[in-house]
Structures are given as C-alpha cells and as structure tokens.
Design brief:
The longest helix is centred in the middle third of the chain and has 33 residues, at 509-541. The strands form five sheets. The chain has a seven-stranded mixed β-sheet, with helices on both faces. It has 874 residues and is α/β, with parallel strands linked by helices. The chain starts with a helix and ends with a helix. It is elongated and about 135 Å long. It is built from 30 helices and 27 strands. It folds into six domains: 5-107, 3-Layer(aba) Sandwich (MutS, DNA mismatch repair protein, domain I), CATH 3.40.1170; 115-266, MutS, connector domain (Nucleotidyltransferase, domain 5, 2-Layer Sandwich); 299-405 and 556-570, MutS, DNA mismatch repair protein, Chain A, domain 3; 436-537, MutS, DNA mismatch repair protein, Chain A, domain 3 (Orthogonal Bundle), CATH 1.10.1420; 576-777 and 809-822, 3-Layer(aba) Sandwich (Rossmann fold), CATH 3.40.50.300; 843-873, no CATH class. Helix content is 44%, strand content 17%. The structure holds adenosine-5'-diphosphate. Adenosine-5'-diphosphate is lined by residues 593, 597, 602-603, 621, 623-629, 768.
Length: 874
Amino acid sequence: MQLTPMMQQYMEIKEKYQDCILFFRLGDFYEMFFEDAITASREMEITLTGKNYGQEEKAPMCGVPYHAADSYIAKLIEKGYKVAICEQVEDPATAKGIVKREVVQIITPGTVVSQNMLNERENNYLASVFLHETGAGIAYCDISTGEINTTQLTSAGYTERLLNELVKIKAKEVIANDYANLDGFIDEMKITSGAYISILPDQYYIRNAAEEFILRQFQVKSLKGLGIEESDLSIMALGALLAYLFETQKQGLSHLSYLNVYDTAGHMSLDKATIKNLELTETLFEKKIQGSLLGVLDKTHTAMGSRKMKQWLREPLNNLKEIQERLDAVELLSDQILLRNNLKESLKKIYDLERLAGRIACGNANGKDLIALRNSIFVLPDMKSELAACGDSFLEKLEEKMDSLSEIYDLIDQSIQEEPPFTIKEGGIIKEGYSLDLDQIKHSIKDGQSWIAGLEGTEKERTGIKSLKVGFNKVFGYYIEVTKSYFDLVPENYIRKQTLANCERYITPELKEVESVVLNAETKINQLEYEIFLEIRKKIQDYISVIQITSGAVSTLDVLVSFSEVSSKLGYVKPQVNKGDVIRIEKGRHPVIETTIKDGIFVSNDTYVDRKDSSMLLITGPNMAGKSTYMRQTALIVLMSQAGCFVPAEAAQIGIVDRIYTRIGASDNLAQGQSTFFVEMSELAYILNTATEKSLIILDEIGRGTSTYDGLSIAWAVVEYLCNSKYHVRTLFATHYHELTSLEGIMKGLKNLNVDVQEKDGNIIFLHKIVEGSASRSYGIHVAKLAGVPASVLETAQEKLHQLEATAVSIDLDHYEKELLAEQSPVKEETEQISFFSFAPNPVVERLKALDLMNITPSQAFGILEDLKKAAEN
Ligand code: ADP
C-alpha cells in the first residue's frame, strides 16, 4: 500500500534526523509519529493516539499545540533528548499540493535559547572536547549570551585537568570526538560533569573544515588574528563546536563574534574536588545555592551579574594587578555609599542585556524584548556619569566600555509601542508616527472601525431591541446578536447566520462590506508592522557587539557592587594581597557558617602559614570541634581575596595562591564503582603530584578509609613528604592520629594546632578556638554521648578504651628522631623511603625468637606455649 503524501514527506525528513524527536508542524500543532510519538507521549505525559497513513495499521501519534510547544520541548531537553523543529516553510493557502516543510532548528540541552527553558541566573554552556594523545582542546559557548571561549591542555595530567575544567564550566551538554571513548573516559566525563555527552562522527574533526568554520564565524583572514594559529587541539574543538552549532541552529550565530582564548594558568586553578568541597556555588549534597559561598556573596541586581559572579568564584585570579584592581574598586564602592546606592538603583532597572542581545541576534526577540532593551539603555547615561570621575581607575575603565547606545534608544523609543504583544505577527507593535505608510492604512480604516463601534447603539435605537449586541469571532467575522425574546423585532435586512440556545446571530450586507474593508486592511497592517519590526530588529543587530561589551561592563560593575554591599554589611575587610608566601589572617571567620549558625556566635580564629617555619599546620581536636570549618575558612578567605572580594576577618595578608587543593570528607563515588578509600587516594595522588610552591593544600583526615595502622602510616608519610619536599607547600592538615603531633620540632615547618574544648563533669564544651599545641585526646566517646548514643554502649566503649589504652603498642619516636638526626639533613630526597615506625619489643615475640626448637621436648613446648598464652592475656 502507498503511504499518504504527507507521511511520505514525514518519512523523508525523519530519515535525516534519526537522533532527534521530530516535531512535525501540521496547522496549529506539532505532531510526532511512530517511535518518537511513543517516547514523547511517555516523557511529556500526553495522550498517544493513532493516524491513518495509508497502511493497515495506524501510526502511533501524539501532538502539542504550537503556541505551548516550549514547555513540552523543555521537558524533553531536560531529559537529554534532542528536538528537531520541522516547520511549514510556505503559506498553506497558496501552496500547490503538499505544503513544503523543513527542519529549521534542532534544540539540544546546550543550544537552548528560549527564555522559558533557561535559568536566568545560570549560563547554558555547550562544551566541545577534542581529546588526543598529546592533550585536549576545549571550546565552549553560551549561545543565549554570545560568549565563546577556547583553551588547550597539553602538559602532563591533561585528562585530570580536563575534568577539572568541565566541572568549572558546568556545561549542560558536551560533544567530543571518538578518542574520548577510549578506556571509558567518556563515562568519567559524564559523571564528573553531569552533562549530556555525545560523541560526534569523524567528519566533524577535519582540520581544514574546522579552520574554515572558524575563519567564517569570526570573519578573519587567518587564525593568527585569533591567537590560536598554533593551538591545533583548540582549533579542532572549536571547529567541531561551530559545525555542531551551524547544524542545529541553521542561522543567527552572528553574536558569537568575540573569541576568548584563555590559558588555564591565568586563573587560580581549582580541581573538581575543591569546587565541590568548598561549596563555592552550590552545596555539596543538596546542590542548593543557599548554604554556598555564592549564596552569601550574590546580591547582584542583574541576571548577567549573577552569572558573572559564579564565574569569578569558580575562576579566582592569580595576577596581582588584576586582583588589586577589583579590590580597589570594591573599596571605593564600600566607602562611597551614595555612589553605591545610586549604582544599585540603576542596576535594578537593567534587564538581561546579554540575553536580549542573544535573542536579537538569533531573530527571536519580540516587541517586549526591545522595550526591555530600551528601558535598560535609559539608565546607562546616569550610570556612566556616576562612574566617569569616581576616582577609581578600574571603575572608570568600565565606564569607558559602556556605550550609551543612544541611537538604539531613539530608534526603539520612536518605533515600538509601550506595551507590545508577545507575538510579532499580529500587529499592535509599531507606534504611530514612525511609518507614513502604516499610518495611512490605519487611517483609512478608522471610519469603518468607528462605524462598527457605533453600530450597536444605532441598531438598538432603530430596532428597539434592547439586548442587541455586536460581536466578532474568527469564523463569522462581525455579527449582530439578538436574544430570543426579541425575535419578532428583527428587521428584514438581517440575514441569519447562526442559532445558539438563547439567541440568533445575524449579519447585514452593509456590515459585511465594511468588515471586509476593515479586515483586509488589518491583515495588511499586521503584515506591514511585522516587516517594519524585522527591519528595526535588523538595525539593532548591527549593534550587537557594542551591546555585548556594554553588558560585560555592567555585569562586572554589578558583581563589584554586590561584593562591596556584602562586605559592608557583614564587616569584611580588604585583604592585602601580595606575591609573597605568607597567609596571615587575623580573627578570620567562615563566610557561610557565620551567617547560618543558629545558637551562639561564630568564634573567630587566626591563621598563619608560610613556606618556612609554619608550612604545615597539623590540627587535632575532637570531632565537631571545628577543624574542617577552620581549614575551609582559610581556603575561602584566600579564594575570596583572589576573586576580588573583601574577606570575613579583622585583617588579612594573602600571598597569592596558584591552586587550592582540598581533600575533605569522604566523598563516595560508588556510581563510578570506586571505593571511598580509592577515591581518597586518587585525590591525594593528584595533589602530591601537581602541587607547586604557590599552592595551598587542605587535607582533612587523610587515611581514614583503611585500617588504623595503614591509615596512620599513610598520613605520616604524607606529612613527611610535604614537609620534606623542596616546595614546602602551605598545608593545613587535620587528623585524628595524635601520634603525628610528636613530629613537631622534628619535621621542618610543622606546627601543632588544636581546637580547644573544656571538659566538665564528663561532658565536653566546644570552644571552637584554635590554639597552639596538640589535643590531649580524641573525646570520641564524649561526642557519641552528645549525639545520643545509648548509655550502655557508651559504658562498654569506655571500658574497651581503657583496655586498649593499657595494652596499646606505642610508637618509638625517640628511635625515629635519632635516625633523622643521624642523617644531619632535614631535607630528604622526595623518593627516599624511611622506616618511620619502630615498635617497642613485644615480650611474647622476643621469647619466641629466643626458642631453640631442636632442643626442647613436646611437653616442654606445651609448657612454654601455656606461659606465652598467659603473658599475652595479661
Ligand atoms: P570537625 O571538622 O572538627 O569535626 P566542624 O568543622 O565540622 O568540626 O564543625 C562542626 C560544627 O561546629 C560546625 O558545623 C559549626 O556549627 C560549629 N563550629 C565550627 N567552628 C566554629 C566556630 N569557629 N564558631 C562557632 N561554631 C563553630
């Protein structure tokens, strides 16, 4: 049997878009068929029906109205599907035969532009990864704002750094070449990035084609101008990204015009564990903003400012000049409250300029968007004049970057109605006085419109029908409605058109004549308004890059104002940042915990760490005393300083850090099939292999995931490795292994700190105060008591503890010390192994060793065995 012509057309199009759900436009609906319909009806929770398509069985089918399609598409995108939008590309009224249809756009998680599908405070990144045996190229963009970046990683450990970058970028979708399939790396990318990942076929990775795409997109003659002529990996990643965009978007990428080529060394590098552990932009488990550093610092007034703040926190600076610029600007904004308040008022009135520019470039902007653009531009001159001579060079530079965009303001102000509709095809957008042609047509129908408007009154009077009404609907056009009780008064020239329960609807020849003039003119007006609107939008497209530069300056200002606002409110101070090695914090506080603490006040603490005598702070103290809080607060204060924010302390001196590493808590990665201990050791390996003399390491309870001796040995070896390494990396190390505290004075740079607790009547009170020296004990049972563990369990634990303490094998530190001193050199080769444990001789073992087995009888042997057993039991 033959397929119906429409289904034939459907099949031909679907053939080309196998990996997408095809939204096939049929009149006012998008329809889906076959497998697509089954999947979509399940995922979107809509009814599955069937359609005759020329075969015996019906084709499974489901559909959604075109005007509500966004929310349905959003559901599919969220679940990782791709949606191909197939439109009617000719007017059905004039089409001969079947209406021509084409796929006009493919929507994927990383290429969403519709406002309804985007989170305004978050970028929607699409990342492209090109992996090779020599390194990795990354390119990523947000087509809703026009941002596009690229970098490449070539040095050792590039795969790990690639994963770190992906965590930082937090892309919604990642595309990669087939090489990423090797050794299951793609799964690792999936788990670490949480993005939808697809492997693209080889034709996306042809060097010449990639180059051509890039030159065309950025309208340059050579790659040199872009600064990537020697970055083969970047070129491949970027080429594939652009090819993918052309394929999915088909048009409207002109706003991706400025390529940002970055070097990961240009920022403080944060590995994936650190970004998560320090809860920079979301909490570790619940993934909420509230409870994260962003939750405290983000008081931005614009969505683009909020997005930029996220970037700044994930990418703190490591260039002193740039850090200083931000800090100085924040200082001025903190001091000049009036200036800050005025800027705040202006910022509140600015819409998401970046995304408005994106929508204008993609051809998605409507009349409301243009009014939002005009209203945002309105405040720019004020903002510029506030900043122009404010006395801070960075803020003044921002002012120079802001364009007052007065041409666009005038254009929109003269042309677009104050409250335009959402649609752009149904008129009501263009202001009177902007187009002579439009005004003339509008004028020509004024008489007809007012005749219709007055018809109800005149007819009521003429006929005496009090309930007479004039109405309009799409099927019959204008009509005169008369209720039942007045039927006998209906005049002869009324022609009946429709009968309803209680009334009849009529037309008159005269009414139809006027209606035809009015409706024809209205169609013309709508068409003309649409054309004029497109012209205006096109004119604005010429200013996209100016709008983008302006919005970049506005969002930076927004973040700085927010930093100063929070700093003033929460009593932060300006840190003294320098290129030295010392981190000195006086009365530091944890920025998040101090705002969430329920009972009592946050206890501030000092930190001093350098690369000489205090490079390794060994922190002991019971659980819940505040060790993690103290270490995190140090890391966060460093990070905030380098992001350009003031810090929660009375004073802070920060020697710039190139990387912060954290190994905090037990982050199980069972999804990846790795044990907690394996993850812990992998993270540790990464830290020890890549930390530099400028790094800061935070280690919390290293070695806990294995047996006590194993764990203690590993922790000990790590302390020794770090203290002896030539870098003397600044390290904060919290541990339960009290044995390690004996290393103070032996290990170069090691300082013991502990968190003070008070013991009273068998209970402990946490003072949260960091003091010098080591903790005397662990107080584990006290903490268990506080947590409500039953008394009988606590008693048994206490008994067991006494027994264990009495029989514990002690570690002979004297021996170790002697060994070290004998070597005369505190700094050892990094690879050298030393036997740092030496246990006190065990009498049982010693006696066994001394036995001469050849010269004792079996009964003597039994006697000795009995003695040994007794000795062991004691
Ligand atoms: P530890 O790492 O020693 O087990 P945490 O750092 O996790 O302890 O702290 C436990 C809790 O103690 C925190 O959640 C917080 O409520 C409180 N706390 C920690 N440090 C302080 C402080 N400096 N001031 C007040 N409360 C604190």
